[in-house]
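Sequence in, structure out. Go.
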Amino acid sequence: MKLLVLLISIVLSVSLNSQVYKQTSSEVHFFSEAPLENIEALNKDSKAVLRTKDSALVVVITNLAFRFEKPLMEEHFNENYMESETYPYSSFKGKVVSGMDFSEDGTYEVEVKGMFEVHGVKEEKSFKGMISKSGNIIRFSASFTMHLEDYKIKVPRMYVKNIAEDVKVDLKFELRKA
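Output:
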């Protein structure tokens, strides 16, 4: 809940002339490749705000919004691994630290750095991404690997062959000038 308040406060704390972009569409996809079964899910209900004045980026992901191929996978994800009732959101709060000139249209390879919070655990994270700016639209995409143990997400020994310890995460956001 704190993250939603933060996201809203960023939007409200800037004047109408400020360069704030809010997400209009989102995709957060993860893929776990394991010997017995691949697991993947898609979330289209995430929120993002980018403030170009200082390159601040906030992303809030609703954990319950991930959709799986099998309903049982979704249930296990929310109840056993993410504990979504206790930790309803995952988030990233950081900055685009290199590679972007927000005053110019174009496509840029960027580095993003900040605090990633999953399952109640905060960890400093840095990853590469792409930003494409065209007029009042910014498209942001990035991929990174998440090590479940870093976020205290435990995989029972009996499921080690079903669930990989490392999960590939892909983000895609389209943002429009607010």
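Check: The chain has a mean pLDDT of 89. The radius of gyration is 17 Å.
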